[in-house]
Write a structure and sequence with these properties.
The protein is α+β, with helices and mostly antiparallel strands. The chain has two domains: about 1-45, N-terminal domain of TfIIb (Single Sheet), CATH 2.20.25; about 45-140, 2-Layer Sandwich (GMP Synthetase, Chain A, domain 3), CATH 3.30.300. The protein is built from three helices and six strands. Helix 1 (about 45-70) crosses helix 2.
């Protein structure tokens, strides 16, 4: 692959530390959620960061597919939910993703077609394919 852009971020302190991008634009405290045995509190976590990145990338892919197919989208919305749970095979953890897609004014069958094509096209979807369960759901 010929990289067009490379993002870099450095973490200190793992899930209870901080993260900063190499350009200084992103600088956040990290806190482990109470559900994972952490203290919670003000700060983000890797699952929230992954959800934000996946939703942004997928919505861009969805818009690109719609333009290619000459479908006009009005205020599309994508909500990515990233879940973490126990991996029974090795005692570690696994991720799963759910993408909820809202395409106001688009007939459900066409919306589902666009959503599936975007899933085939999106770089995040390509990266997760075969690695984690990803559910795509068109919602009203």
């Amino acid at each position: 692959m010929n990289a067009l852009y490379t993002a870099a971020a450095t973490v200190h302190g793992g899930r209870q530390g901080s993260v900063a991008s190499s350009d200084g634009v992103l600088k956040l405290d990290l806190k482990m959620p109470k559900e994972l045995g952490g203290s919670g509190g003000v700060g983000t976590n890797p699952e929230q960061l992954f959800a934000a990145g996946y939703a942004a990338c997928y919505e861009s892919a969805l818009s690109a597919i719609a333009r290619k197919e000459k479908v006009s989208l009005s205020n599309p919305e994508v909500t990515a939910s990233i879940s973490i749970g126990k991996d029974e095979s090795d005692g570690g953890f696994r991720l799963a993703a759910k993408l909820e897609v809202k395409l106001p004014g688009i007939e459900r069958s066409q919306a589902e077609d666009l959503a599936n094509k975007a899933h085939a096209f999106c770089p995040y979807s390509k990266a997760t394919r075969g690695n984690i369960d990803v559910e795509i759901q068109v919602v009203d």
